[in-house]
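Hello,

Our lab assistant flagged a job as stuck in the queue for most of the afternoon. It eventually completed. Since we weren't sure the result was trustworthy after the delay, we are filing this so someone can double-check. Below is the sequence as submitted and the structure that was eventually returned. Let us know if re-running is recommended.
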Amino acid sequence: MLREGTRDGVCDEQPTFGSGRATPDRADWRQVHDRLHTNARQRSALDANEAYWLREAERLQIWKPLGMVSILDYMERVLGYAPRTAQDRLRVARALAHLPVLTESLGEEDGLTFSAVRELVRVATPDTEAAWVEAATGKNQREVEDLVAGHAPGDHPDDPADPDIRSHVVSYKLSPATFALLRQATLALDEEHGHHLEDDELVAALCTSALERGSQAEPTGRAKFQIALVVCGRCEQG
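-- returned structure --
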C-alpha cells in the first residue's frame, strides 16, 4: 500500500543507455514483459504519490511565491503538463482526497491505472468506490469508459445507465490569441464561482453568459432556450 508523502514501490534500477549495448536486447519476452509491467506499476505508484503532493501544493498555494497565477499555471510551467492533462490530474487529485479505496488501488501492485481512476472519480463516492473498483478491475481503458458512461456520482456500477447524462467529447482548434482569451475567461469564471470549474461547468457558464447578454438586446422573436426531446426507438422512452 502506498503511504501519502512516500515513494513506495519505486525501483532504482535503470537500464544502461549510451555508447555501450544495453542488456535488454538479450532478454527473452518474459523479461521484457516483467520490466514493462514493473514500469507501469511504478508509474501508477508515482501517480498516487503526486496526487497527494498536488493537494499539498494547492493548500499552500505554492505558485504565488513563484510568481505564477494558479496551480494549473504551475503544473504547466514547472511539471510540464499540457493544459488538459494538468486539469485532469488536478481533478483526480482533489477527488482522491475523499476516496481512500481508489487511492490505495492506484498505488498498489496490480491495482488500477491512473487512466482508469481518472474515469472512476467521475462517479465514485466514499459509499460506492469499492464497488466501482471491483467492477473496473481487469478491464481495459475503453471498457472502463463504457462502464462509467451514463452514470452519475453515487450510482452503483450495476445501476441502469441514463443516456441523458452521457458525456459528449468536443474539441476545438484555437489560435494562440483565442486560447489566451479562453485561459483568461476561465480564470475569471473560477474566481467568480469561488472554485475551479470543470469542463461542463465552464462551457455552461460561457454559454449562459452569452445568452443572458443577448437577451438584454432588442427582442428577436426567438426563445432564449430551446428544448429537444429524443425518444429511444427500442424502449420508446424520452
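-- support follow-up --
The delay was a queue issue, not a problem with the job. The result is valid. Residues 183-215 form one domain. Residues 29-60 form the longest helix (32 residues).
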